[in-house]
Amino acid sequence: MATEPAGTGPSAEAQDARDRSPGARAAGPGGEARRAEARGARARNRPRTGTARTAAARRDGGVRTPPSADGAVPAAPPPGARRLLAGAARRSTGRALLILLATTASAAATIALPAVLGHTLDLLLDRRDGARPWVALCGVLLAAEVLLDALTAHATGVTNARSTAWLRNLGTAHLLSVGPRRAARFTPGDVVTRLTGNAAEAGTVPATAAASVASVLTPVGGIVALVLVDAWTAAVFLAGVPVLLLLLRVFVRSSSDSVTRYQRIQADIAARLMEALGGARTVAAAGTAGRERDRVLAPLPDLDAQGRRMWQVYGRAVTQGGILVPLLTTAVLAVGGVRLAAGQLSVGDLLAASRYAGLAAGIGAVVGRLNALVRGRAAARRTAELLSAPRMRHGTRRLPPGGPGRLELRGVTVVRGGTPVLDGVDLTLPGGVTAAVVGRSGAGKSVLAAVAGRLEDPDDGDVLLDGVPLPELDRAELRREVGYAFERPALFGGTVGAAIAFGAGEPPEEAVRAAARTARADSFIRLLPAGYGTPLADAPLSGGELQRLGLARAFAHAGRLLVLDDATSSLDSVTELEVGRALTRDVRAGTRLLIAHRVSSAARADLVVWLEKGRVRAVGPHEALWERPAYRAVFAGTADPAGAPLSGGPPRTAGAP
């Protein structure tokens, strides 16, 4: 272990002087260099796993993929908007095909109807026999349009809902699988916007794309039918088609940019709102509600500008189309009227030609579909960005049966913002011990707790549990055998009992109650209206009660490693002492890693890991470390359970187990 043994060596004064020197971790002259050399040799000889292997590959030039913001390297390029939408379409193939068939059939009925109406009108005007079947056919085509449109609406609604649900599930599952550190690159408000509004808009793309075929088929069919009815009227209409196509091109180009900008500003406002709501008590106490409101709403002018621009682009396209289409229709009617007067067209043909000109100029429908596709693709691009963080990979290995929970950190380094938070940490905790991690704020305690149970991977080095590197472990095995309790636990489940049972596996009711008793939560749970069956929404909890429920959940799922990340900070001293005693007596035997701020917590531990500036300064019993002034200074300003200052000597530990 690359740390100093506690309780041996020179006097406390000499020891503190050595602690402050650059070679504080050395075991003698040249010790740091020798240890660094040994660490390097060990790293070269052992198999590389996890991020250590990828970091080494980057140094060796074997990996060309650029690292992400947190130093991790994706195993494969993240899916873009096209791939994401293609995945959604594959999962809606049947329904999309139904929409395609229904809209195509409806378009066919729409295209056939003018010709049938024109022929029927000629039969009726000429008072010829055989008009009745054609009148019936007109009714059938009209009914078919109505029924097919209703079927399309139903299938579109179902497809949109299923696609949106798939996108939301995919984004949520991916964020939960990348680890808290990588997921933190997205603010809560931004995530909510991407998984609600953006996913909903992206979810409309498969159905819209399927229906777009019919929206294009209708004007194309109208042009073809117009040519068949009368080539002269068709020629007049085709003269304006290039202008229509130009309008569509300009619309798509302008709309895409404005929609993307609008969605990003919308997400920024949502993120600011979530921050404000999360700190509502602080805002109220500071009397800054007005200032905070102004901060949240500051992007509104930009949102307004982009919204106006977006609708101006859409309105301009529709307006221009609205001007061009009547002109084309009028020109067709004018030419058709001349040909009717010359006896070259019948009344029915003129009716059909006028209706086909309207169908052929159906730019409004095409623009609407394009607008939906543009918005959907822009939204899909933002949803796909959630998948850009590399997923945390897991192996298939199992832990050795009956292992005691031996925890090893070998050369573990974690870098954030270019600064090492943990710097080459070497640490071995024998199975079954209770180890308290102490240090000043910013020493790296919570980061050590996170890498110990693989809530995040180190940028370099390895973490092993009972000799197995954590990245090689089966995911279910890892989560069964490593438990966590946090300073501010999040509770999941419909009731208080379900919140304690939440986790890998489903503990029996008696185990849930036993865990609550160990965490000293049973007494206040029984006072709730329905005890363990009380809905969480109906259970007002103080900070200490919330922490005790979090501890109970961790105890109910305790495996061979249990990490308590400042999980007793809100407990009073007496309750903390009781929980500490019960932890060693009533919870499944295994290794316990406690992030400790109180001297009483360190005193009850078997070992203390003293962190300083991301390095392990010393490991040893609390009583031995207490002889050193620098160690005592870590707890400056704290008090023991009895409330006595701790600056004059070691704490009273008579109550410690």
Describe this structure in words.
It is a single chain. With 657 residues, the protein is of the alpha/beta class. 59% of the residues lie in helices and 10% in strands. It contains 26 helices and 11 strands. It has a 7-stranded mixed beta sheet with strand order 1-11-10-4-9-8-7, sandwiched between helices. Strands 3-2-5-6 form a 4-stranded antiparallel beta sheet. The longest helix is centred in the N-terminal third of the chain and has 47 residues, at 131-177. The protein is elongated and about 115 Å long. The two termini are 26 Å apart. The model is unreliable at 1-78 and 639-657 (pLDDT under 50).
List keywords for this structure.
single chain, 657 residues, alpha/beta, seven-stranded mixed β-sheet, four-stranded antiparallel β-sheet, 26 helices, 11 strands, 59% helix, 10% strand, elongated, disordered N terminus, disordered C terminus
Count the E strands: 11
**What assembly state would you assign to the polypeptide chains in this entry?**
single chain
Put simply, the count of helices is 26
Side by side, the strands of the main sheet go 1-11-10-4-9-8-7
Task: Write down the overall mean pLDDT.
Answer: 79
The assigned structural class equals alpha/beta
How far apart the termini lie comes to: 26 Å
Described by strand count, sense and barrel closure, the largest sheet is:
7 strands, mixed
Q: What is the C-alpha radius of gyration, as a whole number of Å? A: 35 Å
What spatial form do the alpha-carbon principal axes imply? elongated
**Segments where pLDDT lies below 50 for 5+ residues?**
1-78, 639-657
Percent of residues in β-strands: 5-15%
Helix content: 55-70%
